[in-house]
Specification:
Keywords: Fatty acid metabolism, Isomerase, Lipid metabolism. By secondary structure, the protein is of the alpha/beta class. Helix content is about 45%, strand content about 15%. It is globular, with a radius of gyration of 20 Å.
């Protein structure tokens, strides 16, 4: 099996998974469906992964949003039962999108072209967000008569520093550019070009991350997410408890020895597979 085929068995009907570099997985979407969450939950138990890049397989768009014609919303015989069924339906989609956040490895998303509605839900759940210069974003849900309910409104205020802009975009559904997304903090880098260029940049970052201690990287993601949802004092206390165990890793001594010899350190896989 070639390196690029290492994760082929993770592929599904609407997504392709490959291994373009050691310890790096590339997930390419052709259409959103719940198998996206299933794949990332499987990655969570894959010991040979250290970083994941999420991109679209389509040349001109990342995602135009949920295909409402493909959705079969649950119906009931009266409002209370209908609401309970619909709530479970929404929670299922939320869980699918949150799989990128649950994944212990850093997830880098590369966006290009059209990135509407569901696109914002998806990228907001990723750790690092790159955008091609040709991308056009929109929090589009208001234009189809609903408030975004799969993650955008929960995560954007914790990601982007410009809360006035977040409100404006969510209320109006207007398009906004890669430059605006970078200015408000939604993306950390704008890459000149389109899909190929932004995916290449994201893969370069993933390769760099994959060279680091997997214990240190996984712990860093875990602690950053904890810090987002807790006070400074709570996070400091939690970090002390976390690192009282994680500092006992052999990765620490390996990194120090390699630095002394001016060599790149070699680290064992995390071995998270259950």
């Amino acid at each position: 099996m070639s390196e690029s085929d290492a994760f082929h068995h993770f592929s599904g009907t609407y997504l392709k998974v490959s291994a373009p570099a050691p310890y790096v997985a590339l997930v390419e979407l052709s259409r959103f469906w719940t198998e996206l969450g299933q794949v990332f939950d499987r990655f969570s138990q894959e010991p040979t992964v250290r970083a994941v890049v999420l991109a679209s397989a389509l040349p001109k768009l990342f995602s135009a949003g949920i295909d409402f014609t493909a959705l079969s919303l649950p119906q009931g015989d009266e409002p209370a039962r209908s609401a309970l069924r619909l709530r479970q339906h929404i929670l299922g989609f939320q869980s699918c999108i949150s799989a990128m956040e649950r994944c212990p490895y850093p997830v880098i998303v590369a966006t290009h072209g059209i990135a509407y509605g569901l696109s914002i839900d998806i990228i907001s759940a990723c750790d690092v967000r790159y955008a091609a210069s040709n991308v056009v974003f929109a929090v589009k849900e208001v234009d189809v008569g609903l408030a975004a309910d799969i993650g955008t409104l929960a995560r954007l205020p914790k990601i982007a520093g410009n809360h006035s802009m977040i409100h404006e975009l969510a209320y109006t559904g207007r398009n906004f550019s890669a430059a605006e997304a970078e200015k408000m903090g939604l993306v950390s880098r704008v890459v000149s070009g389109g899909r190929d260029e932004v995916v290449a940049a994201a893969l370069d970052l993933a390769k760099l991350i994959a060279e680091k201690s997997p214990v240190a990287v996984a712990g860093t993601k875990h602690l950053l997410l904890h810090a987002r949802d807790h006070s400074v004092r709570e996070n400091l206390e939690y970090t002390a408890t976390w690192n009282s165990a994680m500092l006992q890793t052999h990765d620490l001594t390996n990194a120090v020895k390699a630095a002394q010899k001016k060599q790149k350190p070699a680290f064992r896989p995390l071995g998270l597979k259950l």
